[in-house]
Structures are given as C-alpha cells and as structure tokens.
Write a structure and sequence with these properties.
By secondary structure, the protein is mostly helical. Helix content is 62%, strand content 4%. The protein has a two-stranded antiparallel sheet with strand order 1-2. The model has no long low-confidence stretch (mean pLDDT 96).
C-alpha cells in the first residue's frame, strides 16, 4: 500500500506504474505503446496465469518440513516450469523482457525469487529465464532485498 498525501493505492504493480509516472526520470517503461502493452501482458502471465501452481507450492512450503507433501511440491514445480516456457520464449536472446530493464522485470522478479526459494528455479529447461533471474539478482536494487 502507498499513501501519497491521502491518495491511497495498493497492489505492487499498480504502485510501480504510479511511481514511474510520478517520478519519470529515468523512465522504467518504453515509449513504444506496443512494448508497454507487451510488458503488461508478460506481467499478467507471470503473476496470474501461473498463480494456481505457485500458490499451491507456496502453501506446501509454508508448512513444517515434516508435513510437506513432496509429490505435490514436485508436481507444482513441474507445472510451473511448463507454464514458464512461454516467458522463456518471450525473453528470447534479450537481457530483459523488453530489451532494457523495465517495470516488467521489476514486477516479475519478486515472484521468481520466491519460485527459486521453492525449488522451481533455476531449471535446465529454462536456461534464458534462469540467466535472467541471475542477472536480476546481481542488480544493486535486487541485492538490497535479498
């Protein structure tokens, strides 16, 4: 949640866009409307389309280790890896999803850091995404939250 002089917003991706518009230097979204839209599609996919297996895996990880169902955990990891193929292909040979670092990468990285801690990443089946996550973790802004 953000409270900017009584103006309240919530949801991290919306807050990120608000801050980018309020403090536009440097801009964190490309000027090209298609690329901005493409970035939003990728964020929606990364956060919403993968939500069910991510949330189920998270639920298992929050349990005491002795109470976790390892078969459910591995099934959800595999489902996530399968769903993440779309993002693997979308990343292509680019360092970041839209070419340069953008809100797309910033919005997605917290979820991916948790997926890493849950054992879904890195994965040999997702070499580009795994390299992207490593690149993101080397950024000073991400290092600060690790």
């Amino acid at each position: 949640m953000i409270n900017d002089a009584g103006k309240i917003l919530f949801e991290s991706c919306i807050i990120n866009e608000y801050l980018d518009e309020k403090y536009p230097n440097p801009p964190l979204m490309p000027k090209d409307p298609y690329l901005r839209g493409r970035g939003r599609v990728l964020v929606d996919y990364a956060l919403n389309y993968t939500h069910e297996p991510y949330w189920a895996l998270r639920g298992e990880m929050l349990k005491k280790e002795s109470e976790r169902d390892n078969s459910v955990m591995e099934e959800k990891r595999q489902t996530l890896r399968s769903l993440l193929q779309y993002l693997e292909e979308s990343l292509g040979e680019k360092a970041y999803f839209l070419g340069e670092i953008s809100l797309t990468d910033i919005d997605i990285v917290p979820r991916f850091l948790r997926m890493e801690s849950y054992g879904a990443l890195p994965s040999p089946s997702l070499p580009r995404l795994s390299a992207w996550l490593q690149r993101m973790k080397e950024r000073p802004s991400v290092k600060a939250i690790l």
